[in-house]
Amino acid sequence: MREKREILVVGGGTAGWLTAAYLARFFEGRITVTLLESPDIGIIGVGEGAFPTIRSTLKFLGIDETRFIREASATFKQGIRFNDWLHAPSPDGTRHQYLHPFEAPFYTEGGSLVPYWLLQDADSRPPFAAAMTIQNRVAEARRAPKRPGEGDYAGPLNYAYHFDAARLAQVIEARAVELGVRHLRGLLTGVDLAADGSIAGIRTDAHGTLEADLYIDCSGFRAELIGKALGVPFKSVKHQLFTDRALACKIPYDRPDTPIESFTIATAHEAGWTWDIGLEGARGIGCVYSSAHIGDDRAAEILRRYIGHDDYTARIIPFEPGYRERQWVGNCVAVGLSGGFLEPLESTGVVLIEAAVGMIAELFPHSGPADAPAARFNRLIAARYENIINFLKLHYCLSRRPEPFWRDNADPASIPEPLQELLRQWRHRPPSRFDFLLDLESFAFFNYQYILYGMEFPTDLSASRGDFPNVEAAEKLFARIRNFSEQATQDLPSHRALIREINQGASRGA
Questions:
Q1: Residues tagged active-site
Q2: Quick check: helix, strand or coil at residue 133?
Q3: Every domain of the chain and the residues it spans
Q4: Cβ of 101: how many Cβ atoms within 10 Å?
Q5: 6-75+161-238+325-373 has CATH 3.50.50.60 classification
Q6: Are residues 360 and 377 in contact, defined by beta-carbon separation less than 8 angstroms?
Q7: Per-residue DSSP letter, 460
Q8: Which residues contact residue 458 at a Cβ distance below 8 angstroms, ignoring those fewer than 6 apart?
Q9: Average pLDDT per 10 consecutive residues for the chain, totaling 510 residues
């Protein structure tokens, strides 16, 4: 018997290295962590963005924020701006836009301002995010969420990052090795199964057979262990989330001083949407679409029209929206794309990696059967996937666009019943924290509020107007938010200026 338990991570990339580094940091040498990485398989970077949870993860790993920004070519992300999701641009050029910021709406001890916004005149009130948080104005002005010199992973506004996925993996790899992860390079050539169906060992071209107490499958869409070796079925959700392909590319800026957007731009088109991410030296752009509604040539035309020229090379990324309901089977756990993928919207890929590895760390038994936590893990991760499906579907099903893709998304037959039930309730009250169980959620009730009211969902409180008598006090708070928004826009540096200062510090040895 081995002196201490061993974990073998199969696959590198963001999923593999984040998993290995996190477990090495969590167990602090009490468990041996090894990562096997193929030198011939590249990284799929879908979206190149994250959710604010990544800050806590990077801080836990002990990665300096300044180093991370420099080495991963990272920029700040304060949310997502949605263009044309409610309806297509009008002939006169009028467009519908709304922001899903990371900052929670302003709340007071006396209660929420949301009902007071809902009771205002719908034709004259400001957009929900603009009324409820200063981040809307700050992000639209392309300001940074913090000032130079403020502490690592801290600032007056909530934020995440955009980054180069390959360079992010390299940053985490370096930290993982510092934390004691054993790094092996080689090809997986076969998987040996024990009599009970668990994994007895994996065969490699360079290291012979490797054995461990727990095998973590981070082999991406190939799912070498959980799918090919163990045959765990994949549950498609294509009947609810229709997009299944993306065309991705990078476009350099026209000038080195071009302002960097402080959010992801998600622009709807006839059969999906286009992401636009501001990195330090280029924009990451991708056209996400449903192959059941348009072909690859039409998607390429939409991407070309969005960019405005054809001087780029785009790669096509096919994916099947869905997940494995059993991601921990015997002594094998799937993390990342091997466990499932829904779509690039809202950067849920990295969020799900963080959720999975956090649960593995907390649940992994130091003795006894390695699969003891499997049933609980599977219930928790499946619930999280289903709840994310509801949240993503919310973005689509409220659209009034006339194209077949959008009409199909608004069809009740494609909307999960739990979401339909919530929508029925939300016609008479705003989303509440009691609608969600936090340990099963990646998004809070206010994230739903931003999408609902950004898409002009009608919550009718007129019959209970008398229950909200503090109109004058609410108006003063709305005015304070407006004033703070203007002040923050003046006080915070431009996004590019802060990124330039952080990166120039490297050349000065700072």
A1: 77
A2: coil
A3: 6-75+161-238+325-373
A4: 30
A5: yes
A6: yes
A7: -
A8: 427
A9: 84 96 97 93 62 97 96 96 96 94 88 95 96 98 96 95 94 98 97 97 96 97 97 98 96 94 98 96 95 98 97 94 98 98 94 97 92 96 97 98 98 98 97 90 95 97 94 95 97 97 70
